[in-house]
């Protein structure tokens, strides 16, 4: 019985489980945001074409704040910056509430910008889980924290649906007010959370830059960034575009259900992704992720009907999980303890930049290409990922990771 439970609850530090709860709160806010941002933005903007600007501003904020947040964590510690992010979430809720009440598009943009600052900080929960832990357990730790999205997939769309229209309140205003509750809960978690003790692994600061001076040493890091960021770009763009497609072919409740299933398909596999990586390796895990995203694009080219869009979103979520968790695990195994903040910051900055493009491009691509041709136009990016996983990663993975361990121990 204990063995069966351990498959779902691996033997990891208590701090990892607290981070999983914090990640669930983070992703709940993100799911609520993606569900309502375009709808509220279109209602408050002067023209529908500007409806996705607040959501785009959110991702632009994530992009600009990610690397500074990582560097500040290195200086002041992760808990301080995580708590600062929670305060930004509370402010985002307050500003967003009054933006809807006062019908202010500028305030709505400000709310999503503050939300982006919070997300930029909270996105490091998965890397905080692997601080100073053994290399063999890093995929499990990252996977467990990402699995917090399962709770978000259930709670997020439900909250967006039930808080959308509440008697006595302006429509959608409570969807933003709930961010304040999430922020207070995050502050409570950070009050009891403690990062792992300092690692006993020797770190040669003066030799660390030397380890990354050659291209061979950087290849797996660059592949890890491409897989995570490329998968995120494809997922975000097609997810937002799918919500625009469904707006014209089904009800809001049907859209919420499709987004809920999509987010579940993104995060439920996280209970198993760590074990999958341990069994088949990072190369095959990443390869499978890009194959699933390719399958989603194929389904997306068949027809503009709810059933096809629903199926594409489900496959898209599964593929994203493997590329995102697999890319994070590859990065965690490929960088030294000393250099982890810099590369984690670069990684998440690139992811945020790709997510920003994924938030801004859906509407213009829909106008010019439509849903079907957008899927076709994005396929070459998947093809690049497949080639990198098949041809490049096997030659570089052992070349870079093993010398990093050997040389840092000298």
Please outline the helices and strands.
Blueprint: H1 2-8, H2 14-44, H3 53-76, H4 78-101, H5 105-122, H6 125-128, H7 138-146, H8 149-164, H9 173-192, H10 208-211, H11 215-247, H12 252-267, H13 270-300, H14 306-334, H15 340-360, H16 362-368, H17 370-408
Helix pairs in contact: 2-5, 2-7, 2-8, 2-9, 3-4, 3-5, 3-15, 4-5, 4-9, 7-13, 7-14, 8-12, 11-12, 11-13, 11-14, 11-15, 11-17, 12-14, 13-14, 13-17
List keywords for this structure.
mainly alpha, disordered C terminus, 17 helices, Growth Hormone, Chain: A, 410 residues, disordered N terminus
Describe this structure in words.
The protein has 410 residues and is mainly α. The chain folds into two domains: 13-196, Up-down Bundle (Growth Hormone, Chain: A); 203-410, MFS general substrate transporter like domains (Growth Hormone, Chain: A, Up-down Bundle), CATH 1.20.1250.20. The chain is built from 17 helices and no strands. It has helices at residues 2-8, 14-44, 53-76, 78-101, 105-122, 125-128, 138-146, 149-164, 173-192, 208-211, 215-247, 252-267, 270-300, 306-334, 340-360, 362-368, 370-408. Helix 2 (14-44) packs across helix 7 (138-146), helix 4 (78-101) runs antiparallel to helix 9 (173-192) and helix 11 crosses helix 13. The longest helix has 39 residues, at 370-408. The radius of gyration is 21 Å and the shape is globular.
């Amino acid at each position: 019985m204990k063995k069966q439970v351990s498959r779902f609850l691996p033997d990891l530090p208590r701090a990892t489980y607290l981070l999983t709860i914090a990640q669930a709160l983070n992703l709940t806010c993100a799911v609520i945001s993606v569900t309502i941002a375009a709808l509220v933005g279109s209602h408050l903007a002067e023209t529908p074409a500007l409806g996705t600007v607040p959501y785009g501003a959110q991702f632009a904020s994530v992009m600009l704040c990610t690397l500074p947040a990582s560097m500040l964590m290195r200086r002041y510690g992760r808990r301080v910056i995580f708590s600062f992010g929670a305060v930004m979430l509370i402010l985002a809720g307050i500003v967003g509430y009054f933006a809807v009440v006062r019908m202010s598009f500028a305030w709505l943009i400000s709310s999503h910008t503050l939300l982006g600052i919070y997300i930029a900080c909270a996105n490091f929960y998965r890397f905080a889980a692997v601080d100073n832990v053994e290399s063999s357990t890093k995929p499990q730790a990252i996977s467990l924290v990402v699995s917090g999205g399962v709770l978000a997939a259930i709670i997020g769309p439900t909250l967006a649906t039930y808080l959308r229209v509440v008697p006595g309140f302006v429509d959608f205003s409570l969807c933003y007010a709930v961010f304040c509750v999430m922020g207070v809960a995050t502050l409570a978690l950070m009050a009891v959370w403690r990062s792992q003790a300092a690692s006993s692994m020797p770190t040669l600061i003066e030799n660390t830059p030397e380890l990354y001076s050659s291209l061979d040493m950087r290849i797996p890091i660059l592949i890890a960034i491409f897989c995570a960021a490329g998968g995120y770009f494809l997922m975000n763009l097609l997810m937002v575009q799918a919500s625009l497609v469904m707006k014209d072919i089904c009800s809001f409740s049907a859209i919420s259900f499709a987004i809920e299933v999509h987010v579940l398909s993104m995060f439920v596999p996280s209970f198993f992704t760590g074990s999958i990586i341990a069994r088949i390796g990072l190369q095959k895990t990443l390869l499978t992720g890009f194959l699933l995203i390719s399958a989603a694009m194929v389904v997306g080219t068949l027809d503009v009907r709810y059933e096809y869009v629903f199926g594409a979103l489900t496959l898209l979520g599964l593929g994203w999980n493997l590329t995102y968790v697999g890319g994070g695990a590859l990065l965690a195994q490929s960088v030294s303890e000393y250099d982890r903040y810099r590369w984690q910051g670069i990684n998440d900055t690139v992811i945020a930049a790709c997510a920003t493009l994924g938030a801004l491009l859906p509407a213009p691509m829909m106008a010019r290409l439509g849903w079907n041709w957008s899927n076709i136009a994005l396929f070459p990016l998947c093809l690049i990922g497949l080639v990198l996983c098949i041809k490049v990663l096997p030659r570089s993975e052992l070349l870079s990771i093993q010398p990093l361990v050997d040389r840092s121990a000298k």
